[in-house]
Records
---
Amino acid sequence: MRHSSSIEDYLEAIMLLADGEEKVTVTRISQAMGVKKPSVTSAVTRLVENGLAKHEKYGEIHLTGQGRKIARDVYKRHQALKRFLIDILAVKEEVASEDACRMEHYLSSMSLERLDKFIEYVMECPQGKPLWLQGFNYYLVHGKRNPEYMAVCSPRCGNAPGDTENSRNKELD
Amino acid sequence: MRHSSSIEDYLEAIMLLADGEEKVTVTRISQAMGVKKPSVTSAVTRLVENGLAKHEKYGEIHLTGQGRKIARDVYKRHQALKRFLIDILAVKEEVASEDACRMEHYLSSMSLERLDKFIEYVMECPQGKPLWLQGFNYYLVHGKRNPEYMAVCSPRCGNAPGDTENSRNKELD
DNA sequence: CCTTTTTGTTAGGCTGATCTAACAATTATG
DNA sequence: CATAATTGTTAGATCAGCCTAACAAAAAGG
């Protein structure tokens, strides 16, 4: 079952507050999310109805296992999107965070998986920051390719080891 | 001013129908979007109220200049996201399209610009499909890096021409 | 041209998500 | 501990966006 982006936002905010060793209260959620307190009360009621949180009147709010799982998933998507925007597209952090906040609700698990692997592939390159990514930065700044990077783009004219004509993506779907 | 994702969806659908030389009617929009006709009538009313479309009773629906502009922007975001997912992350088309449909409403203009440039940089590499991307495909399939691709990852250990310690992203923000 | 079919609109209901205003419970403090 | 301040809830409104049912207008076809 899929939950609304609003619900996901509340779950995420509650998880982050709880992880920060904070007592999770209506007021704190309200401040963290920039909504009024009655909105929080009613949202929390919705969470409870959906089995995603526990809340006794005037007491603290806690996520259930299910709620926590969803919150973690949302947060994973948030982080993946944000890292991609910042580390690869060189979008400035503030904008990246806002975009991630909005898009985090809509990335499928398949795309998330691929995005995670892509970031890992790029950023954990055992030989440092990939040259092609530096080349992309150059391209962003100067509006054209730097021939010195291009030399490395595809030395064998696109034929890579073991990559025959149509091997691309064949085993992926 | 920002419009809701629902409004953007209607604009996009109307534009695509119109581009397809079709008469844009309530019924066609309804079919194209998978919503009932009264929903379309009321959505179109909202479009008209916002100056995004024209519609005389029982007649055809046309976008205004403003409406068309927004529709085009949405569609650009859609295409950029979809191309990225398919061509770079190797997500299968069906999933990519769905993801793009949902995320297209939430990508900032800054991120779109960067994403477009990134795709251009990668896909229009003058020497063919970049080796590193082929390496990523290998990584997806086999779960590990192919040493033959790695040799090309960053030959000079991360020091690229003219790339001194902190030049990264400096001129970008 | 009259009737049937298709198309479009109106009316009215529901849900999620927000808000303000007013009130109730809890906590802090002199 | 009594009162003030803070915190939380309730009540009630609004809005977008969808739906179904019923009706009205337009188009098609004998």
---
Amino acid sequence: MSPEEHPAPPATPGKKARLSRELVLSAALALVDAEGLDALTMRRLGHELGRDPMSLYRYAANRAALLDGVSELVLNELAIIPDDPNWQAQLRRIAHDLRLLALRHPNVVPLLVTRPLSTPLGLRPLGTLRPLEQILSLLIDAGFAPDDALHVYRAYYGYLYGHILNELQEFVVDPDENEALLRLGLHRLPPKDFPRLRALAPVLADYDGMAELDEGITILLSGLAARLSLPGAPAGPSDLSGA
Amino acid sequence: MSPEEHPAPPATPGKKARLSRELVLSAALALVDAEGLDALTMRRLGHELGRDPMSLYRYAANRAALLDGVSELVLNELAIIPDDPNWQAQLRRIAHDLRLLALRHPNVVPLLVTRPLSTPLGLRPLGTLRPLEQILSLLIDAGFAPDDALHVYRAYYGYLYGHILNELQEFVVDPDENEALLRLGLHRLPPKDFPRLRALAPVLADYDGMAELDEGITILLSGLAARLSLPGAPAGPSDLSGA
DNA sequence: GCCTACAGTCTACACTGTAGAGAAGTTGTT
DNA sequence: AACAACTTCTCTACAGTGTAGACTGTAGGC
């Protein structure tokens, strides 16, 4: 929309180094992080790399595949699982890691959430399935029967993604404003229809996503452990609240 | 891509009835339900309604607004809250309703999940905020302090959306195939790297989303009730498992 | 040196959202 | 009935999209 040109390929020194899938994907990720998903067009990415847009098709079959590649790249940042036998601690750590990852790449989250809806399990990029496999491993090694492991995984991962989505969408409109209502743009809501929401503006405005996630995880994991009557220490709240 | 033409506007009888926002939005929803989000282009929708594409701009400022309208339309199908004082039962019912709604309109789910990430609370279509307001009301009426109500809402809604996403992405590739591995397309995964996942194919293939949701809700709600030490009956598993 | 692959480029096409001007239709007033 | 004011709808045009297909340049092997 805005007529501004995008200045130049960031002055790549060794001008014409060969491309590679890694190069293409990380440029794509950088672009998405910096300017959002819509900015990631083939032409723009080509421009960013100082190459013709069509050259990208050597490294990704089409735009969708490029997006898959970006998802995969991001999920690869998620370190997984030394052999800690304490599954609850392990899952809690992963949850916090994934949350931070999402906060670091908020523009990619829609991809993580949306692409799997149109790609059957077996056709997903392997990198996006690795967390699943490894969490299953973790749980089975901790003593769960395979079906129960899957069960736990589903509840856990479901909640985790839900939390992340929740947290990412409660963002602040105008950080300079110090009236809570205005910071969140809630003043536009008709007071008759939305009294509770408006009244909660101050509480909404300071949201401790990390603490909420931690508590939710605690509830969920200890609940699951109880139900499956399994190798679970009582799973008290973790001690991360200072980080 | 495919050269097939889309046959004709479904032979609207009173040919040139005036358009209206409701008409436009419900045609849009029908189109999305039938052919997916990508099929919803201005030209195509115009064609479907027997009108010039540009006429749509009287009823939605642009494509994004159209999508918001569709989200809103879908969420309006969610009936909310007679004055049942049993908040747990109430939230459980809403969860199942929303799940069914999502299953009825799977192609809209990406919108429900994605649009709020780029629209601050105060600027969302009012219809999408109503569930939030009403659930808050429900909880506060049930005796929660406002902050706690928000707290419960976040955990609850987070989990709920997470579950729905989870369930929708575990879909079957080839229902005719009776080997579980093949039905899910899992045979493409390298056995060395994904032993657990492959072994779980049969369990994956029959997923009782409703039961899983119900159990997760039970765990979460009773956990929350316990933590907030509040008006909560023990919240045993519900009796919906036969529907 | 030529030969074979592959990497990168160019051109072209069908399709997208939407600005802007105008035509057609509807409604209210006399 | 005739005009005016207003709304709804249509037409044309444009800049931008993904990508097919043919082409050019370059790198390595002998």
---
Amino acid sequence: MYSISDIARLTGITAYTLRYYERIGVLPKPRRQLGNSGGSRQYDDLDLRYIRFIYGLKQTGMTLEDIMSFTKDGCLLTEREEDAPIIEDTLHSRIDILNRHIADLDQRMKQLEEVKAVALEKRAFYSAMLEKLEKADHIL
Amino acid sequence: MYSISDIARLTGITAYTLRYYERIGVLPKPRRQLGNSGGSRQYDDLDLRYIRFIYGLKQTGMTLEDIMSFTKDGCLLTEREEDAPIIEDTLHSRIDILNRHIADLDQRMKQLEEVKAVALEKRAFYSAMLEKLEKADHIL
DNA sequence: GCTTGACTTAGAGTCAGCTCTAATTTTTAT
DNA sequence: ATAAAAATTAGAGCTGACTCTAAGTCAAGC
């Protein structure tokens, strides 16, 4: 079991931000130490894995609103047993959402590839120029 | 020659934002129609190409500050003749900056790959479950 | 020459996404 | 049992990145 500061250390997200994400609904409410909703937050490895997944989306350019559109409809990505019953309907919906998300990731990667291609081109241009200059130096 | 609204249309960046980028130094000051700094902004294809490159960086998650750290030291990525004279020193510096930038892009792509791997895993999990359910239906 | 429309500026306003404060309670170590 | 460290909350404040307003200038068509 992890505390909020353990999670902060393990993920690189501040405790402030973790509480903020919970408040606005990006992350689900975790269990608490005492009573149904008192005491400190307690996280397990499944929570950690989920938080890392969500943070990955954020870090790769997805807005919190977009992230929420994937996670609402009943917290679709947690894989936790106590979540919505797994019936064919929700399964189809989950798979659809993942498909859309994968397509979005592919789009982002394509864009990065394009930017990288331009950068490589520029580097090749400068390298060629440098080589010419060095040859000229050698002759003199 | 393009006006600011041509560039806005061609890149998808608003004219407001283009002026803002120029103001804070993300984009260089373009030529003007009349006098040295009066009249409307005029852009050519090299400017357009450069603006698209910069916007690509932004869209793939780089902050404006990070972008500026690549472009300062004398507007290192424009390839325009009237820029800093091409001497060995600045060439080395340009190549270094591009190398750092390419490394950064690789890092971002790696992160996207990781997020995608998790998404694919989740999808496979749900698909397998769906298949099982369908088989069960068939038997009944 | 006048209107229309796109351009110009400085500066104010907006919104997302944190980030922190203050006052309080809970947890942990001795 | 008590002190220190870490957690809790609501809500205020901050920063980055736009986004717009207002007041004015310029160029083209009628």
